[in-house]
Amino acid sequence: MVETEILGSPPGAKKSAPKLEIKYATGLSLLGLTSGLVSVDSLIGGLKRDTVALLTGSDIRLQAAERYCIRAQLPRAKGGLDGGAFFIDGGNSFDVYLFTDLARSHHLGYDAALDRQSLSRAFTIYELRSLIEGSETVFMARKPKLLVVSEVFSLFTEDMARYEARRVFRDLVSSISEISKNQRVPVLLTSASRHKTLTPILEERCNISADIVQGDGLVESRLLKHPWRAPHETITETAPRNYNQDALQMEAK
Questions:
Q1: Among 11, 124, 149, 235, which residue is least crowded by beta carbons within 10 Å?
Q2: At CB < 8 A and 24+ separation, what contacts does 71-75 make?
Q3: Is 179 a residue whose pLDDT tops 80?
Q4: CA–CA separation, 126 and 99 (whole Å)
Q5: Could you tell me the CATH number of the domain that includes residue 182?
């Protein structure tokens, strides 16, 4: 059995009734939700309500995932979504220390930021499927503005029967499409690598697919699918900095 954890909230804590607000579109909100990382944002742009994006490659994908969660909490006037995120962790990758550090750097109280963040962890492919299929209850109760499925391929190991892996993964991908359609929130999926047999199944339902690999002072970026940008590859140079800082400097190929 898997359960959703509300970070920062003690068991049985009561929540105040939501307030009715009138929201207006701003220039930043129309651009979509960005990560604040140059290499990611320049490659795929902002995440919009109909976005289903697959981001693979180096550890920057994990930093981007948590940055999206934090920046979703910002007001719409500052490019946020004015709400929390639902993070389904398929690779035990959620870093609460990075999350709270990012909250501080974005001038958010880390207790309040944790309280708005929902987190569920899966340890088998069946738990992962169950969490995604059952996410409607989280959306009804918590009304997250963003869904992140971290390390979506990591539980589909080589010793698993290929037919069973494909069957479960197709169910999972179908549920992701339904969430995108019914909830109208951006969906981000991450993975360290691109699974040979499962990636094409997921890319059928994604409208953005990208890969970013860092190493030896260079960042190799590939845009494989996008609603309005042509597929392309770029190489950019980066100067070494702290993991929690924006590290990328753009340079013409």
A1: 11
A2: 71/33, 71/34, 71/35, 71/36, 71/106, 72/33, 72/145, 72/146, 73/106, 73/108, 73/113, 73/116, 74/106, 74/108
A3: yes
A4: 27
A5: 3.40.50.300
Backbone angles phi, psi at 53, to 5 degrees: -120, 135
E-state strands within 17-166: 52-57, 85-89, 118-121, 146-150
Distance CA 49, CA 51 (A): 6
Could you tell me if residue 142 is inside a domain? yes
Better-scored residue on pLDDT, 249 or 111: 111
Residue 243 has pLDDT above 50, yes or no: no
Local structure of 12: helix, strand or coil: coil
Q: How many domains does the chain have?
A: 1
Stretch 32-54: mean pLDDT, rounded?
Answer: 96
Residue 39, both tokens: 């290499």
> How far apart, in whole angstroms, are the C-alpha atoms of residue 2 and residue 115?
19
Mean of per-residue pLDDT scores for the chain: 88
Q: Is residue 128 part of a domain?
A: yes
Instruction: Find, among 73, 64, 62, 53, the residue nearest to 8 by Cα.
Output: 73
* Domain limits for position 46: 33-211
C-alpha–C-alpha distance, residues 233 and 34, integer Å: 20
Q: Is 237 contained in some domain? A: no
Tokens of 52: 């289903």
Q: To which residue do tokens 């607000």 refer?
A: 21
191 in any annotated domain: yes
Give yes or no for a contact between 32 and 46, defined as CB atoms under 8 angstroms apart. Answer: yes
Distance of alpha carbon 172 from alpha carbon 147, whole angstroms: 14
